[in-house]
C-alpha cells in the first residue's frame, strides 16, 4: 500500500467520523476533506475544485430554484389541497392517494421539500377525519424518497452515479434511464404499505393545529378593480384561484349588501367582497392587478413615508384606547398613516364590514403602510406588539407559466435537445425571468449545504480512483464474490450502500462506494452501469433508521415514531426493494430475464 493510499484512507476515516458524529456541518466537513486532499498532494487544485462546476452540483441548484417556483406560484399547495379532498375517510384510501402523488412530485423536486409541504396537510387531514397521523406520515415520507428514483435529476446520488459512469468512458444515463426501476419500486412500496399499514404505530401529535387553522382566516374586503380580469367571471373561478380557505361572508354591489348573488354570479368591476381569506391570499394580492384590498384602494393615498408599502401585524393591547371603538370611528388611516386591511379575532364574531367592527383586546390587525411610519405605531401604547405579516405571497396568476417552464425543461432534457445541466439551468433562469419566483427567493431556495457538500465529496471519488484505493478494495471484495452470480453481486453493492447511507448522505455513500463498484465490474469484465446504479439505489431507498433520510427526520416528532418503528417497517421493505432493483438492473444492462426464473446465471 502506497503512502498516498494510506493518506487517503486517513482522510476518508476522518471525513466519515465527522459525517457520522455531526461535530461539524456536512458542508464544512466536505470542504475540510477537499482541502486535506490538496495539502497532501493527492489532488491538484483544479481537481479539487472540479466539483463546483460539475453537472450534479449545477442540476441540484437548478432543481431547488425550479421547486421554489412551483411552490411560489401555489402549484405544490394546490396539489396538497387536492390530496386532502380525495383522500377519503380511510387510512387505506389516503395512503393509495398520497403515495403515488408524492412520488410523482418528488421525481422532479427535492424530496425533503415535498415531505415538508405535505406534513401539515396530512396532519390536518388526519385530525379532520379522526385518523392516526402516524399511519400516514411514514408512507408519505417513504414515497417521497422512492419518487426520486423515477428520474435521474431528483436525487444527488444518481447525478453523482452518472458522473462516475461517464468518467469510465461509458455512455452516461439519460434522464429516464432509471425510470423502469423507479416505477417498480414505487408500486412495490405502495402495495407493501397498503398491506402492512396496520403494523404502523397508531399515534398522533400532541400539538394542536386549531390555532394554525384559525390564524389562517383573516376578515378582509376585496375590491374588483376597474378593467379587472375577473370582471364577468363567476365567483367560483375566483374561489378556485384563491384557495380553499377563501370564504365569502358578504357581497356588496353599488354600496348595498346583496343576498341574491352566489357562486355562479358574475363579478363586476367595483364589487366589494367581504371575505375570510388565508394569510397567503392577503400577501399575494399585489401580484394580481384584477383585485385589491378595499381599504388600501380607498385610503391608500393617506399612507405616507419612505420605503415600499408592506403588511405588518399589530395586537390590540389590554387597556388600549382603541377598545370599544369601531375602525370607522378611529379614522385610523389619517391618524397613523396606515390602513387596517384585515382583522383576526380569536373567539367572537366580527361585523360584516371591517369599518363597523368594534375592536377588542387581543384583536390582531393587519396593517398596510410604509416602514417609516412603523416605528411610531410600534411605540404606541395601544398596541401590544408589531410583527411582520405571516403570509407568504403566492403568485398564482403565474402558475400556468411555471408549469410550462417545468414541462419545457423536462422535454429539453429528455429529448437531449440540451444537455441535462443546461436544460435545468435554463429552467431555473426562466422561473426567475418570468417572475414565477423573485431572484432573492430563488437564491434562498438553494440549499447551500447540499450544493457545497456535493461539490466537496466529488473529489473524494476522484482521489479514491486516482490513488488506486478503489481498485485495492474492489480486489479484496472480488476475492470473496468472484464465484458469485452478477445478481448476487448487485445485491451486495445495494446492501453495502444501504447500510452506509444510514449514517452518511446518499451522495457521500455513492461517491465512496461507486468507484469500488466500477473496479469490481471491470475486474469481472462486465458493464459498470448496473453496479453503480444499484449502489446509488441502495443509498437512496434503504429504510432502516430515520437518520438515513432527512425526510424521515422531519416526521419523527409529529408522528411520535421510535427508531424501532422504522426498522420493523423499513427492513422488509428494503429487502424487497433490493431484490427488485438488482433484478431489473440486470435485465436493463446485463441482458438478464425480466420474468423470475432463478437467481443463477447472468
UniProtKB/TrEMBL annotation:
Cell location: Membrane
Swiss-Prot/TrEMBL keywords: Membrane, Repeat, Transmembrane, Transmembrane helix, Transport
Topology with respect to the bilayer: Multi-pass membrane protein
GO CC, alphabetical: plasma membrane
SUPFAM superfamilies in UniProt: TrkA C-terminal domain-like
UniProt xrefs under InterPro entries: Cit_transptr-like_dom, DASS-Related_Transporters, RCK_C, RCK_C_sf
Transmembrane segments: 28-45, 57-75, 95-119, 140-161, 173-195, 401-430, 450-474, 486-504, 566-589
MF-aspect GO terms: monoatomic cation transmembrane transporter activity
Single biological process term from Gene Ontology: potassium ion transport
Claim: Repeat is one of the keywords in the record: yes
Domain spans labelled RCK C-terminal: 294-383
Pfam families (alphabetical): CitMHS (PF03600), TrkA_C (PF02080)
Record's protein name: SLC13 family permease
Species in which this protein is naturally found: Marilutibacter penaei
Amino acid at each position: 500500500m502506497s503512502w498516498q493510499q494510506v493518506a487517503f484512507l486517513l482522510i476518508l476515516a476522518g471525513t466519515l467520523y465527522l459525517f457520522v458524529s455531526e461535530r461539524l456541518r456536512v458542508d464544512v466537513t466536505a470542504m475540510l476533506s477537499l482541502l486535506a486532499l490538496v495539502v497532501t498532494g493527492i489532488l491538484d487544485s483544479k481537481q479539487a475544485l472540479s466539483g463546483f462546476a460539475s453537472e450534479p452540483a449545477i442540476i441540484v441548484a437548478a432543481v431547488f430554484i425550479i421547486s421554489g417556483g412551483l411552490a411560489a406560484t401555489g402549484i405544490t399547495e394546490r396539489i396538497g389541497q387536492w390530496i386532502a379532498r380525495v383522500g377519503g375517510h380511510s387510512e387505506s384510501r389516503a395512503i393509495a392517494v398520497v403515495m403515488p402523488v408524492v412520488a410523482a412530485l418528488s421525481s422532479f423536486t427535492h424530496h425533503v421539500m415535498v415531505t415538508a409541504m405535505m406534513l401539515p396537510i396530512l396532519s390536518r387531514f388526519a385530525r379532520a377525519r379522526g385518523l392516526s397521523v402516524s399511519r400516514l406520515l411514514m408512507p408519505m415520507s417513504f414515497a417521497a424518497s422512492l419518487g426520486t428514483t423515477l428520474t435521474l435529476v431528483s436525487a444527488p446520488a444518481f447525478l453523482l452515479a452518472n458522473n462516475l459512469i461517464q468518467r469510465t468512458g461509458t455512455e452516461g444515463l439519460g434522464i429516464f434511464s432509471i425510470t423502469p426501476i423507479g416505477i417498480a419500486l414505487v408500486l412495490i412500496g405502495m402495495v407493501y404499505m397498503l398491506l402492512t399499514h396496520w403494523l404502523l404505530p397508531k399515534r398522533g401529535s400532541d400539538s394542536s393545529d386549531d390555532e394554525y387553522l384559525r390564524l389562517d382566516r383573516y376578515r378582509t374586503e376585496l375590491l374588483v378593480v376597474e378593467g379587472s380580469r375577473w370582471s364577468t367571471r363567476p365567483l367560483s373561478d375566483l374561489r378556485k384561484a384563491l384557495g380553499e380557505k377563501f370564504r365569502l361572508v358578504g357581497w356588496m354591489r353599488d354600496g348595498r349588501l346583496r343576498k341574491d348573488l352566489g357562486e355562479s354570479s358574475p363579478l363586476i368591476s367595483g364589487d366589494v367582497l367581504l371575505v375570510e381569506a388565508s394569510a397567503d391570499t392577503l400577501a399575494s394580492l399585489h401580484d394580481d392587478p384584477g383585485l385589491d384590498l378595499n381599504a388600501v384602494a380607498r385610503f391608500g393615498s393617506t399612507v405616507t413615508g419612505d420605503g415600499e408599502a408592506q403588511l405588518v401585524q399589530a395586537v390590540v393591547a389590554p387597556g388600549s384606547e382603541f377598545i370599544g371603538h369601531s375602525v370607522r370611528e378611529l379614522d385610523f388611516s389619517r391618524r397613523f398613516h396606515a390602513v387596517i386591511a384585515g382583522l383576526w379575532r380569536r373567539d367572537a364574531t366580527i361585523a360584516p364590514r371591517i369599518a363597523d367592527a368594534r375592536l377588542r383586546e387581543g384583536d390582531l390587525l393587519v396593517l398596510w403602510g410604509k416602514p417609516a411610519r412603523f416605528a411610531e405605531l410600534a411605540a404606541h401604547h395601544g398596541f401590544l406588539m408589531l410583527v411582520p405579516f405571516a403570509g407568504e405571497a403566492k403568485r398564482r396568476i403565474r402558475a400556468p407559466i411555471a408549469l410550462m417552464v417545468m414541462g419545457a425543461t423536462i422535454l429539453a432534457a429528455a429529448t437531449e435537445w440540451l444537455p441535462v445541466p443546461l436544460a435545468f439551468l435554463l429552467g431555473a433562469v426562466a422561473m426567475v425571468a418570468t417572475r414565477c419566483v423573485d431572484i432573492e427567493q430563488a437564491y434562498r431556495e438553494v440549499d447551500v449545504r447540499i450544493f457545497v457538500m456535493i461539490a466537496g465529496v466529488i473529489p473524494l471519488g476522484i482521489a479514491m480512483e486516482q490513488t488506486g484505493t478503489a481498485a485495492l478494495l474492489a480486489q479484496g471484495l472480488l476475492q470473496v464474490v468472484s464465484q458469485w452470480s452478477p445478481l448476487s453481486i448487485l445485491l451486495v453493492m445495494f446492501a453495502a450502500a444501504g447500510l452506509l447511507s444510514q449514517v452518511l448522505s446518499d451522495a457521500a455513500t455513492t461517491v465512496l462506494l461507486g468507484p469500488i463498484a466500477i473496479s469490481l465490474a471491470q475486474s469481472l469484465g462486465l458493464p459498470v452501469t448496473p453496479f453503480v446504479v444499484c449502489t446509488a439505489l441502495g443509498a437512496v431507498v434503504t429504510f432502516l433508521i430515520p437518520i438515513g433520510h432527512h425526510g424521515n427526520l422531519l416526521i419523527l416528532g409529529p408522528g411520535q415514531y421510535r427508531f424501532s418503528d422504522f426498522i420493523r417497517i423499513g427492513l422488509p421493505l428494503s429487502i424487497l426493494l433490493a431484490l427488485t432493483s438488482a433484478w431489473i438492473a440486470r435485465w436493463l444492462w446485463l441482458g438478464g430475464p425480466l420474468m423470475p426464473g432463478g437467481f443463477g446465471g447472468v
